[in-house]
């Protein structure tokens, strides 16, 4: 789960215990609904207090250790994962003999983090990622990457970007280097439902990122962004097919299955690239579906003029800043 579970509006002045209570209650709920499922948590930029300011010093483990203990995440993450987490809010976990999951703290690259501006490698996370990916390649493992803040551009924010440009480049280069073993990347943060296709220098689609919408319903204060209904993304089955649940009233219900609404027979970068190509026609029904789901069925966001259309296309296919 990628946490956007704490309230956002007054987060900078919100007492720290309220953040912890929010994170704890979401965790409790997930544990009770999915009692026999292993949960992997990643930090959201609003989860700690104060928001966005993640420290980068791996010698000082008290900050991330404190988060782990107070949030009870150490009860769902294993001993090894927790030990890694102390260094910078990141970890690696073995899901099966052939599959490894790497949970990253990409809040360290968020340009709202004043502590990490212009460092060689905040919390040495890229170094950690590199070592984990090398290890995975050596053992013929495939890798899932999960994190909160995605690289690239927000599709609704008139060119709004998240990472510092230097970290955006550094991060994408590392992902590109190991794209052959990274089968899926999952992110949150935007509250919207979208995806990204990463290309190599020759323009070949090499990796894919799914951006899950948020549990938290909200109306953004950013101009033109609008609102979203609450939702939960379930990634199920061998191929990791995503199903999205939504709530537009009192009850939760299935919103859609990715394979059905986008007519995808496989979930891989080339297929999502084909889908993005279909989106170049603004009237295409697949793009119309995407618009509906982008805000989790919040009707106000389905009007999309030419500029809006271009923002979506560029955000999906252009991750470099
Ligand atoms: Zn966020």
UniProtKB/TrEMBL annotation:
SUPFAM superfamilies: Metallo-dependent phosphatases. The lineage of its organism: Eukaryota, Metazoa, Spiralia, Lophotrochozoa, Mollusca. Keywords: Glycoprotein, Hydrolase, Secreted. The keyword Membrane does not apply. The keyword Cell cycle does not apply. Belongs to the acid sphingomyelinase family. It is found in: Secreted. Pfam families: ASMase_C, Metallophos. It comes from the Eukaryota. Residues 250-319 form the Sphingomyelin phosphodiesterase C-terminal domain. It comes from Mya arenaria (Soft-shell clam). This is ASM3B-like protein. Residues 37-192 form the Calcineurin-like phosphoesterase domain. Its main location: secreted.
């Amino acid at each position: 789960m990628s946490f956007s579970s704490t309230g956002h509006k007054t987060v900078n002045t919100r007492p720290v215990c309220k953040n912890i209570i929010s994170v704890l209650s979401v965790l409790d709920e997930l544990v009770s609904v999915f009692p026999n499922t292993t949960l992997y948590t990643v930090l959201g930029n609003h989860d700690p207090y104060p928001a966005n300011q993640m420290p980068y010093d791996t010698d000082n483990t008290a900050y991330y250790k404190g988060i782990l203990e107070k949030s009870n995440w150490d009860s769902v993450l294993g001993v090894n994962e927790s030990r890694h987490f102390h260094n910078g809010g990141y970890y690696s976990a073995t899901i099966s003999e052939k599959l490894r999951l790497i949970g990253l703290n990409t809040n360290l690259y968020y340009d709202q983090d004043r502590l990490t501006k212009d460092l060689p490698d905040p919390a040495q996370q890229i170094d950690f990622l590199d070592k984990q990916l090398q290890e995975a390649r050596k053992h013929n493992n495939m890798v899932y990457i999960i994190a909160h803040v995605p690289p690239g551009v927000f599709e609704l924010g008139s060119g709004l970007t998240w990472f510092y440009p230097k970290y955006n480049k550094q991060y994408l280069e590392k992902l590109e280097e190991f794209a052959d073993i990274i089968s899926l990347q999952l992110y949150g943060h935007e509250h919207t439902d979208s995806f990204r296709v990463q290309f190599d220098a020759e323009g070949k689609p090499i990796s894919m990122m799914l951006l899950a919408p948020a549990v938290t319903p909200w109306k953004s204060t950013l101009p033109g962004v609008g609102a979203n209904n609450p939702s939960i993304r379930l990634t199920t089955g061998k191929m990791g097919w995503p199903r999205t649940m939504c709530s537009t009233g009192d009850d939760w219900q299935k919103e859609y299955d990715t394979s059905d609404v986008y007519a995808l027979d496989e979930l891989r970068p080339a297929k999502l690239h084909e889908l993005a190509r279909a989106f170049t026609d603004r009237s295409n029904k697949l793009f119309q579906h995407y618009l509906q789901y982008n805000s989790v069925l919040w009707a106000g966001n389905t009007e999309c003029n030419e500029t809006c259309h271009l923002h979506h296309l560029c955000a999906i296919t252009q991750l470099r800043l």
